Amino acid sequence: MKKSFLLGCMLLTLQILVYAQSSKIDHYISTNHKTMLRELMHFLRMPNQAKDSANIHQNAEFLLNDMRKRGIQHVQLLNAPSQKRTPAVYGEYLTPGATTTLVFYAHYDGQPVSPEKWHTSLKPFEPVLINGKIETGAKTIAAEEMDIMRYPDARIYARSSSDDKSGVMALLNAFSALRETGLSPAINIKFFFEGEEEAGSPHLEEILSAHRSLLQSDAWIICDGPIHQTGRNQLVFGVRGDANMEITVYGPRRPLHSGHYGNWAPNPGLLLVELLASMKNEKGFVTIKGFYDDVLALNDKEKEALAKIPAVDSMMMRELGFMQPEMQDVGLSMAVNLPSLNINGIESGKAGSAAANVIPVSASAVLDLRLVKGVDWKKQQERVVQHIRDQGFFITDRDPDEQIRLTHPRIAKIRLEKGYNAQKTDMQIPIMQKLIHTIQKATGKEWVLQPGLGGSLPLYVFEQVLNAYPVTLPIANHDNNQHAENENILVKRFLEGISILATVMMLQPNQ
Amino acid sequence: MKKSFLLGCMLLTLQILVYAQSSKIDHYISTNHKTMLRELMHFLRMPNQAKDSANIHQNAEFLLNDMRKRGIQHVQLLNAPSQKRTPAVYGEYLTPGATTTLVFYAHYDGQPVSPEKWHTSLKPFEPVLINGKIETGAKTIAAEEMDIMRYPDARIYARSSSDDKSGVMALLNAFSALRETGLSPAINIKFFFEGEEEAGSPHLEEILSAHRSLLQSDAWIICDGPIHQTGRNQLVFGVRGDANMEITVYGPRRPLHSGHYGNWAPNPGLLLVELLASMKNEKGFVTIKGFYDDVLALNDKEKEALAKIPAVDSMMMRELGFMQPEMQDVGLSMAVNLPSLNINGIESGKAGSAAANVIPVSASAVLDLRLVKGVDWKKQQERVVQHIRDQGFFITDRDPDEQIRLTHPRIAKIRLEKGYNAQKTDMQIPIMQKLIHTIQKATGKEWVLQPGLGGSLPLYVFEQVLNAYPVTLPIANHDNNQHAENENILVKRFLEGISILATVMMLQPNQ
Q1: CA angle at A133 for the pair A131 and A139, rounded to the nearest 5°
Q2: Which of B261, B327, B400 comes nearest A264 by C-beta?
Q3: How far apart are CA B291 and CA B295, in angstroms?
């Protein structure tokens, strides 16, 4: 009991809970947290890029076994009929007589990695426990010495530690917490773990369609993304859509010496910087024709919720180390409720010690377009393509042949990646009100209610295919470096997440 | 004799020579060319980046032994007094009573490599013989089957195959050709092989100063660079200067999710493309203030020589696959007689399959500034720095600290690399006239006489330290991919180079 009490103190956000079940759950978490962390770290050792079929299957296999061990029923892979390479993992726990069903979603695939960019003592798929932030020189904690009471600021560093294997494992541990403490849920619980979210969920729609009846529910709880930057928990009722595209422009057919041909032969790096620079104005707004045209304005309730969200701009600018945002006239909360264009990456030749005095043959950039309700992803990509055409580029979908090279002064190869639209759930419907009430009461705190998150998940699919209501309940710390080098999860957030998710699984629909 | 005759036909540019010694030399080359190619390929197997001290020493050691074996005298390393890491290799062959001395220069270090960019069947330090251009699907020739009569279009692919280990080995083989055929030069011959040319020759000046008396001469024959694009041989009387700089601009302190922060947090890629795009106008001219101010105009003789150079613009545009040069109003010959600014490389995040939806922490570009007579390299770098400052950037030479981050909206770290100025030798002085006469007579062809080459070598040092007259005599094919992936030397050019250089070593000063 003392241990449980101490954990309650250490995990600042694990407040004294009002339900009897909560103390049982927290005691269970306190007693078993070392095992939970070991399991998570074992899971993080498996490389998990969606396109890496062999490794993805190893991850799925691990989940199948783990879920069965925990007593989850009807554990199975859900394949898309058209292909079998990146399955979702499903399981359920049905309560006799229950009329309410929640599906809990997380994804087990991760973003690509650039290992050379990680801190010298880290490797993406060799998870380590660090007593704080690695950038501040915090030291490694040996796994056998880990104890949340001794190391309350501990973080696990690895690809997918926050995005989103901690989501997967928090859900499974929450379920185990109920089972092992003898608590009986009043609802049906279903688990759905996707395996290609970071690849843009190319088969999610197919999988949901093929398994429509199995996946019926009152709501989907999406466990992904970060909590609010103030450290407050949040529920998110919408997400931006997302569509990427890659642009490649061309110089000479073969690489040229920059002395013998420099400033005569066209440098593709120069063509690319001129093109990219033409896409934004000095206020940070996108200059592409029609880019903001179809944006559906926020309604009054959303504006009200938005107004209640604590402004974090100054705090975040200090934390992130810059004094001027790209959008100088729009705050962060509003900025993520607009469509955006981000230059994910630019490559032309080499910078740094590998740079050579050369005119490269081509230069590439990857753009990430985020979309809000009202804006169609295909139309938005087409607007960017038209802008590139308007800058004098001949557009092609393959490397230019001889004839194209000699008849067009500027050539751009464009690869349009599959994307998806934004999604929003009405926060006023009964199941959402019940959820908001339950978690605010259980945690004793007011949650941030976000009309829309800046990030993206293919949640439109749940509406479209299943008529379902998705809502996002993130557990990861906001400074988790997701999608980048040195990704990490704050251990206390992971453990708090288990507690919160167990509370949601104990939702009393008629209360 | 038949073999020698056939070789003469196959090597189109090896004309019927008017000197008796020439047929002896060509016979020797014909008989021994397989051995010469094996030796070159052995040499090419040694990685040779100037900063890679261990490998550079292996290269130098190879040259010391090889030169001694060939009967070259006083073979030794010439170190800079300040450091011993990248020595030049020296040797000489003194002719009793000779009053004329030529120093033959080449360099044995190479550009950095990006092996992933090379053709899938090639590795930079595993030289292979290919029966033509690799891009056209030409096949590998087994070393033991190589014969120039059977494979007249053969190329050797490897880093430094053209730039400049073929220069080094052509000089040594030319010397052996004289020795082994019993020909006696009328001049003193000196060899000077530099080991850090591609690193900008940071210690050449020191080495020349320290060994001034050893290196006295009437002229330096610089064996480096490509022949003219028309396939004609050329002598080059000047080179552009060169100075590089690296620019790094900054975004958030840690990488951010492009959904949660995109278009609010400053993207360093966007800052960089705006900055780089501001450096040129739509005509391809540099917009940086003062960039062309100090250019010394060409004199009448240089203009005359320039007018005689066959225009290769249309041919080169077809060969290189583009229909519009960056400088639309200036031809190639004139473009390389102006200062230039080339974007060698740009890196911000990742493009291609490793691209992630992220706002990177920084973005970098490497610029290559080429300089003509009159323009000082330090002043030119400072003009670029001032331009960056004029675009609102705070300039620093290190990663910005907290205070700088929070007080400057735009921050650029600039690393100025050591550079050097342009050089020109007067083509009317007697030793140059003798050289022009000798090689035109020996080859039976009119050579291209270039006032200035687009490329750079630190030839100003020879003037400045030794009062010497350098002139460049290239042997490599112009489509050799020097400085880039798939670097190669056309075998027949290498063999022709040996013949030409042997002729130069047989220069008769009083004839």
Answers
A1: 40
A2: B327
A3: 9
Please report residues of A whose CB lies closer than 8 A to that of B255: 481, 483-485
Q: How many domains does chain A have?
A: 2
Q: Confirm or reject contact between A240 and chain B (CB < 8 A).
A: yes
Cα B50 to chain centroid distance, Å, stands at 14
Copy the structure tokens of residue B210.
């320290």
Q: Which structural domain range is residue B158 located in? A: 2-237+425-505
**What pTM, to 2 d.p., does this model score?**
0.74
Select from A351, A384, A416 the last residue of a domain: A416
**Would you call A96 helix, strand, or coil by DSSP?**
coil
- Tell me: do B160 and B259 sit in the same domain: no
The last residue of one of the domains, among B380, B397, B416, is B416
Query: Are A322 and B265 in contact (CB < 8 Å)?
Result: yes
Residue B133: CB atoms within 10 A of its CB come to 17
Q: Do A264 and B408 touch (CB under 8 A)?
A: no
Distance between CA B174 and CA B500 in Å, rounded? 8
Say yes or no: A370 and A496 in one domain. no
Backbone angles phi, psi at A487, to 5 degrees: -60, 140
Residue in B with minimal Cα distance to A364: B351
β-strands B394-396, B423-424 pairing? unpaired
- Report CB contact under 8 Å: B256, A319: no
pLDDT digits (tens, 9 = 90+) for B125-170: 999 999 999 989 999 999 889 999 999 999 999 999 999 999 999 9
Chain segment A131-180, per-residue pLDDT in tens: 999 989 999 999 889 999 999 999 999 999 999 999 999 999 999 999 99
Q: What type of residue is B14? A: L
Strand A73-80 and strand B411-416: the pairing is unpaired
pLDDT at A20: 61
**Pair (A148, A218) in one structural domain:** yes
Of the ranges A297-306, A325-334, B235-244, B297-306, the best mean pLDDT one:
B235-244
- HSE (side-chain half, CA atoms, 13 Å) at A463: 16
Residues A457, A407, single domain; the answer is no
Structure-token pair, residue A263: 């400033």
Smallest Cβ–Cβ distance between A320 and the set B254, B276, B353 belongs to: B254
Phi, psi of A431 (to 5 degrees): -65, -30
Report chain A's terminal Cα–Cα distance, integer Å.
Answer: 29
DSSP notation for B18-63: SSHHHHHHHHHHHHHHHHHHHHHHHHHTS--BTT-HHHHHHHHHHH
Strand order through the sheet with A155-157? A140-141, A128-130, A155-157, A488-490
| Average of per-residue pLDDT values in chain A | 92
